[in-house]
Known about the structure:
Number of strands: 10
Largest sheet: 5 strands, antiparallel
Oligomer: single chain
Distance between the termini: 15 Å
Shape: extended
Radius of gyration: 24 Å
Strand content: 15-25%
Amino acid sequence: MLYIKAMIDGVTYFLQQQTNGNWVRLLTAPSLPGTYGVTITAVMENGNIIILDENNEIYSELLKLVVQGKSVAAKRMMDYLPPYWHTSVEMQKVLESDGLEIDRLLNAIMSIYTDAFILSASESRIKEWEQDLKIIPAGTLEQRRLYVLSKLRGAGKLNEAKIKSIVAAFTGGDCIVTFANSEINIKVLPPNNGEVFLFPDVERSIKPRKPAHLGLVVERYYSTWGDIKEQFGSWADVSNMKADWRAVINHIR
Length: 253
């Protein structure tokens, strides 16, 4: 296995492998109380990618981080009161009870807000998009989000700019597009920051949009040794990285 990473509250953490084979990482919990979804991405040496998140039917309950603490709203309401109320146990209990309900309301509002954006939408919202766009669901929730985004970006006449926009929806990066011998050739450049994506989805997204008389070839762009040397300055720079070659691996991909 090349690496395993976890995403919590929008922050990505690379786990470290122990001698017993377990992958662990000591983290600092988010500052605000609440329930946070956890997304685990494992990249295997054979190139296979496994992604698990809170929407997984088997591991959904295990992929949730519950941060306990006092109500944020209760503290804010207490700050509005005169100082002599701050030591009142009764007032603290009342505000804490009301504050938890307000916290839950704010979380619900935030859920509605995040559902308005494709890249942060919940599974139920993505299902609605898939039904509207007549998409057959495939892959993890993150991969389905990217496919919906590519579908929306691909509306209209297919040209080089449109193809680049579709590819960027999956990789966040660029591609090389050429038209020759009645064929569209697309070389997908390495994704930004070593992020992983469902490569076959690039072809699956573009194929229905191309003219029927044109062929389609989608392939990865592989870096040469010269490309790697140019990216990292010199082989001495690569050597100084010692055992951590993750940056080089990400660049090659």
